[in-house]
């Protein structure tokens, strides 16, 4: 199965990407509370989120995420059996908003449990898949190939506005 990974680290084709388990160190207050709550309420058999890679099903979702946070976009391969969970990342934005708005544990628990319900999603879902590792198939976007990708898109459509 081919998916997409955004990562600030530089990898080459055929490299195996594993989680960078220090991502929680950059979080503050409610962000950290959300991650701890997600880990507390996760289904059995699913590793802690910090022990997983987050992969996108489609390139458009990866591009949106990359435009917000930066990094390289990798096309990666994983086996279907290696996927622990599929969830809508938009729900995480909602959870973060709710954690900022209220300290009511019942409300917070309800929205976090909803993230872990199979099939739950927002109006326009952006799915992430949680896995332990992925193999790099292609570097889709990075400093080295960004200009080539932009030029090929412009050539394909004739103008930058249509890309």
Overview of this structure, please?
The protein has 163 residues and is of the alpha+beta class. It is built from 5 helices and 7 strands. Strands 2-7-4-1-3-6-5 form a 7-stranded antiparallel β-sheet. Helix 1 crosses helix 3, helix 1 (29-41) packs across helix 4 and helix 3 (89-101) packs antiparallel against helix 4. The longest helix has 13 residues, at 29-41. It is globular, with a radius of gyration of 17 Å. The two termini are 27 Å apart. The mean pLDDT is 88.
Key structural traits:
163 residues, alpha+beta, seven-stranded antiparallel beta sheet, 5 helices, 37% helix
Task: Furnish the topology, listing elements before pairings.
Layout lengths: L1 E6 L8 E2 L11 H13 L11 E4 L2 H11 L2 E6 L5 E6 H13 L3 H11 L11 E5 L2 E8 L4 H12 L6
Antiparallel strand pairs: 1-3, 1-4, 2-7, 3-6, 4-7, 5-6
Number of strands: 7
Whole-number mean pLDDT: 88
* Class from secondary-structure proportions: alpha+beta
Shape: globular
**Could you give the order of strands across the largest sheet?**
2-7-4-1-3-6-5
Largest sheet: 7 strands, antiparallel
Summarize the structure.
With 163 residues, this protein is of the alpha+beta class.
